[in-house]
Amino acid sequence: MSSPTNHIEPRVDIWENERTLFILAELPGVRLENMSLLLRSNGLELEAPRSDGTNLVYRRTLEVPRNLDGDSIDACLRAGLLRIKIPKQSYSPVRVAVTSTDRPTS
Amino acid sequence: MNAALMFDDLDDATKHVVETSAPPPRPALRLAIPRSAPTPSNLEGVSDFDLDDIESWEKRSAATIPMASRTQQRTWPRMTLRDTGCELVVSVDLPGVAIEDVDVQVSAEVLTIRVRDTSGVPRDCTIVKKERITGALERTLKLLTRVKPESVQASMELGVLTILLGKARKSSRQMIAVRGG
User: Fold this and answer.
1) A25: nearest Cα among A61, A70, A55
2) Mean pLDDT of the B40-57 span
3) Contacting residues of A for B129, CB less than 8 Å apart
4) Window B:83-102, CB contacts with A under 8 Å
5) pLDDT digits (tens, 9 = 90+) for B129-145
6) Which secondary structure element, helix H or strand E, spans residue B163, and what is its range?
7) Which of B41, B79, B160, B177 is deepest in the core (most CB within 10 A)?
8) Residue A55 forms contact with B (CB below 8 Å)
9) What's the CA gap between B136 and B119, in Å, rounded?
10) Least CB-CB distance to B160: which of A13, A14, A28?
């Protein structure tokens, strides 16, 4: 029995604290080897087909803040729930010297 | 507390959440759910139903059981029902839910599925987006066909709960041959 593939957006919860962004994405019926997760400039791109003959493919691009440390993403799929943990990069404020091209006031 | 640690420990932490809606169990079969999925014995001529079909199916069955209100149905996870001819196959998406947090009860005509509350946000986190259905769930389906409670198998795999309900044989009344005297 074959029917056309349906793309659907997985439901997600997103939490954050000062240091980390947490994303929980619901991917029931998805096997680890079939899913892909990419961090692109426009966000976190997720694609995962179900393996239980339902012809459903989860697909979603999640906008994420710019200050994330893409090299340290931790993602784990367990019992159909993908848990993604992304550390935020910490910036300490840098004081900027301001110059002026105005003529000095006389 | 370390945020990373809290995330990893989430499963353990949420196990202590108190069950919020737990009516007393009915005198019916309570299933222990095995880890491996049973295979439906006959998948030919299988038709798929989505949630809408389940709603109409419930209407056709003239359910007198406390039906979930429409609002509740919208917050119930994706659920499918298939009739394979010799058995009914019910699948419910329960991503992130542990086997221990699911309770399935079956009598001849009624299937009840209960899921304990598994929500929980680390204390130092703020919620940015909330789409997932968490919290305690309960759904009761009146089955159109009589099933054999002793034949029921339930399993959880990849966050999908699958329940196989073997149909009871038709009444033997039709099969009695009448002999002429």
Assistant:
1) A61
2) 42
3) 12-14
4) 91, 93-98
5) 999 888 888 888 888 77
6) strand B160-166
7) B160
8) no
9) 9
10) A28
ipTM of the complex: 0.80
Q: What is the pTM of this model?
A: 0.68
Q: Would you call A65 an interface residue with chain B, using a CB distance cutoff of 8 Å?
A: no
Dump the DSSP string for B113-161: EEE-------TT-EEEEE-S--S-EEEEEE-SS-B-GGG-EEEEETTEE
Close Cβ partners of B12 (under 8 Å, ≥ 6 residues apart)? none
Chosen from B129, B133, B161 to mutate, greatest number of chain A CBs within 10 A: B129
Q: Cα separations (Å) of B6 from A33, A35, A90, B99, B151?
A: 27, 26, 20, 22, 41
Full 3-state SS string of chain A: CCCCCEEECCCEEEEECCCEEEEEEECCCECHHHCEEEEECCEEEEEEEECCCCCEEEEEEECCCCCECHHHCEEEEECCEEEEEEEECCCCCCCCCCCCCCCCCC
Angle in degrees, CA B11, A15, A60, rounded to 5: 100
Name which of B7, B93, B131 is nearest A28 (Cβ-Cβ).
Answer: B93
The C-alpha atoms of residue B155 and residue B157 are separated, in whole angstroms, by: 7
* Residues in chain A within 8 Å Cβ distance of B48: 54
